[in-house]
Amino acid sequence: MIVAAALSEYFYMMIPITATFVNMCRIFVHKPLSKMWKQSPPLAVLFTSTCMMLMIDAVMVAVWLMLLLQILPNVPENYNVVFAPAVFRVALQLIYAITNAALFAQRVYIILIPGGLLRTANKVIVTVEILASFTAASIGVIPNVLLIPAHTVPLPEGCFSANCSNVLPGRTFSATTTLVLSICTVFLGAALQYVYYRYQKTSATPVKEAEKLHLFARYTFNIRLLLETVPYFVDLLLTNVQGGMDGNAAHVFVGPYDFCDLAEQLANSRYYKAVLGVRLVATSLGALMCAFLLRSKVSWIFVHGYDIVGDHKMNTIILHVHARILLKYHIIVSLLLAVNYFAITVFEIVRTMRDVHYCDHLMPRWLSFWPHFVTGNLVYCQTFSSFFIIVERLLCTFRIRTYELLDLRKPLLLFLAIMTGSIIFISYFMLVRTASWEMSLFYLAFEDPGNMEYGTAYMFAHISVDFFSMIICKVVHVLNRRAKKVFLQKTVFLKKQLGSQLSSKLQIRQNIALSSTLMPVVFFHFVISAGSALVISLFALTNWKNDLVTTILVAESFAVFPLYSIIMPAVFHCSHRTLTLGWTESFFVTRGSKVGSVTDGKSKEFERFFKMFDEMMENARSRS
């Protein structure tokens, strides 16, 4: 960086600092801090932390200007002069993020519970805010204090900013804490926007002062998201793409090219070609079966037997909208995983069967990175979506009396979007730093022993999530079987008298039918996904340095993720064969015959209900 550019940047930083400080003084003149505290304690704490941030920023800019102008010598004796403002700035930045989150939490509470105990809520929010600020500041400050290097100059040669300096040796801890707090703040701010939208549509005209604070909090979130959170995440991504905070730019985002010697060895292996052929058939069949299942009436679960009250035979139930959304998300992810793996397989087959030399036409690293990156993320989304389907049924079990009336499809869709984005971001953040981009199977090549963390996290996530999914699924099945007996015996379930409520009966039948179907699905997912990830990761971590080709062949043999795309639809169709019949009818029956069959079905249902009504009337007469 040119010294003149660094000097101009620091001089320009004083302009917004001064303007903000003058504006804050005007705010305090208009409304003193004591009055602001009575109205909204989190807002008063936010403004106080803002003023402290401004002062420490001004001190830091002054110190760095003196360093660049050589007024303050760049010697080890002046290390503490540069270190003290920097570490205080880290602590205040963490406190500032927590004060923003506290303000959003207070606004959400006031909107959701307008007549609640606001004074008690403010005390709780401020107490949690103080404890969280102390904890976050300790995590961000103490490692930097303990890791102070001895006899080190503040600025290395050619460095003119804090990012490349030796000032904060434990910046990894502070960066991780800032990342976590930023995610929490964004979550609370998004919750504020959502509840304000619902509040504006359904509630009466609010108090003028409360409305001003609501708008201020919303605008604060929008400005913070645009000018602070998004640039922070972009800077974090670019920093890690270029080699991370250690400065080891070993792998750049684009280029050079693939590892042609490895491709040549794999192309000469007949076993590898056989594996590709089997995988091509498995992925195409899995994609086709997932598409069939998605096309069929997957929201209808077909059960056999009598109703839980023993009245008459019931053959179908309709799943709740939450279960339908999660189930379709899981099927779509499985379909995309099969299609993506099919594309990777076709590409590998074409590359290994060409007559040209492998080093003449090579693939850029960014192009070889993305298909496998998508595969890893889809496997994670598949695992967590199956887990949340079971969790949703568990919540339905504990709220069985009122769950039928609950409709949270928009928050659920938002949650799935946030979950998918979080998986992509975390995977990108970890893989870009750990993966060797010179290989097709980048997630198998570990650059140094420290990259074992990703492989361990990958295995642990699969095994633990699938294991807990099986346990929760069994718990849901047992609880609802017990509830079914309770209905038959007219006793008490979960210490609440359910009586003969229709909603409770429907939810019990849904839970039993879906848990019975999902138990083998979750088991096969555990065996296929977690088992294959365990074998591949262990073999890659222990043997890849000795024999890379054998490691890749073993990994390709145990990469049986597409088999789940075949087994999951097969389990659904075997458990509920009417799904297959309904899909076949929707494709092969003409429109006129469809209308006729629907009309005949409606007339038969009409006659059946009239017959049931006549039987009920006869039973009533006989009793009287």
Question: Explain this structure to me?
Answer:
The N and C termini lie far apart (98 Å). This protein has a two-stranded antiparallel sheet. It folds into three domains: 3-241, Rhopdopsin 7-helix transmembrane proteins (Up-down Bundle), CATH 1.20.1070; 260-588, Up-down Bundle (Rhopdopsin 7-helix transmembrane proteins), CATH 1.20.1070.10; 592-624. The chain contains 18 helices and two strands. With 624 residues, the chain is mainly alpha-helical.
Largest sheet: 2 strands, antiparallel
Number of strands: 2
Number of helical elements:
18
CATH topology of the largest domain: Rhopdopsin 7-helix transmembrane proteins
What is the CATH architecture descriptor of the largest domain?
Up-down Bundle
Global mean pLDDT = 72
Distance between the termini: 98 Å
Give me the CATH superfamily of the largest domain: Rhodopsin 7-helix transmembrane proteins
For the largest sheet, list the strands in their spatial order.
1-2
Whole-number radius of gyration? Answer: 31 Å
Shape: flat
Q: Low-confidence segments, ≥5 residues, pLDDT <50?
A: 241-258, 299-315, 434-451, 491-500, 587-599
Core attributes:
624 residues, mainly alpha, Rhopdopsin 7-helix transmembrane proteins, two-stranded antiparallel ribbon, 1% strand
Short description:
With 624 residues, the protein is mostly helical. The chain has helices at 3-30, 33-39, 41-68, 79-112, 118-146, 171-202, 208-241, 260-267, 270-295, 321-352, 365-398, 409-434, 452-489, 502-543, 548-558, 561-575, 578-588, 591-623, and strands at 300-302, 316-318. The chain has three domains: 3-241, Rhopdopsin 7-helix transmembrane proteins (Up-down Bundle), CATH 1.20.1070; 260-588, Rhopdopsin 7-helix transmembrane proteins, CATH 1.20.1070.10; 592-624.
